[in-house]
Design a protein that fits this description.
The chain contains 6 helices and 2 strands; from the N terminus they run H-H-E-H-H-H-E-H. The protein is mainly alpha-helical. The protein has a single domain, classed as 2-Layer Sandwich (Protein Binding, DinI Protein, Chain A), CATH 3.30.910. Strands 1-2 form a two-stranded parallel sheet. Helix 3 runs parallel beside helix 6. The longest helix is centred in the middle third of the chain and has 54 residues. 21% of the residues are buried. The N terminus and C terminus are likely disordered.
């Protein structure tokens, strides 16, 4: 699955959860004593970065990648097998009779179809588990974001996960960004220690293969 499709699927999950954050706990604030701060304060947060850069997110997405490594290796082996058969067919074109050539070509096409199906199944399985993981992390992150929002008396919170025009925020000052503070609070609440450095631990989990095998011309 392409990076853009991965991002879209993530945004679909984020959208429903972020919208719930917009329902501010106004009644609770109204019960506080003393003068009410009527200053209109705006904050921004990169929800996607907060999820994937958190200790818990890095740990869980790395585990998901490791879980699918055997499947990725299997798909790679099948792809290499097909490439080998293609090279064999090309090299023996003039030496094979029509029947042998037809059988080899049919075997290649059959293996291609099997590889495409296996790739699609692996991608769908991976995406399903990734969405479940994102949803679980958002459920834990939401009250932390809400608490920080309320405690600091913000009036509006905007998500900067996607740059404009994909996202709604055209530009924002770094002074409005509460991502580092929320990330620190999330790590403290989760109690999950920072994982060992890894090239993929802080990145969104990737599917077993980026795209189905593309049939090549004979």
């Amino acid at each position: 699955m392409s990076q853009k499709i991965v991002q879209i699927s993530l945004l679909l999950v984020l959208g429903s959860s972020i919208s719930s954050l917009a329902q501010l706990n106004v009644a609770k604030e109204a019960q506080t004593t003393g003068p009410v701060d009527t200053t209109f304060r705006i904050a921004t947060i990169n929800m996607q970065q907060t999820i994937f850069a958190s200790n818990e997110g890095r740990r869980d997405f790395e585990a998901l990648n490791l879980k699918f490594e055997p499947k990725e290796a299997e798909l790679k082996r099948l792809s290499e097998e097909i490439d080998g058969l293609k090279k064999q067919l090309d090299a023996q074109q003039s030496m094979l009779n029509d029947e042998a050539r037809g059988k080899l070509a049919a075997s290649i096409e059959s293996k291609k179809r099997n590889l495409d199906r296996a790739t699609q199944d692996a991608q769908e399985d991976f995406e399903s588990q990734r969405r479940e993981l994102v949803s679980k992390l958002l459920t834990k992150l939401a009250p932390i974001v809400q608490k920080y929002f309320n405690d600091n008396h913000y009036s509006l919170l905007l998500d900067t996960s996607q740059p404009w025009p994909q996202g709604l925020v055209v530009m924002a000052s770094a002074a409005t960004d509460i991502t580092p503070q929320v990330l620190e609070a999330y790590n403290t609440v989760s109690g999950v220690p920072a994982p060992a450095p890894s090239n993929s631990a802080a990145k969104p989990a990737k599917p077993p293969t980026t795209k189905p095998a593309v049939p090549q011309k004979q």
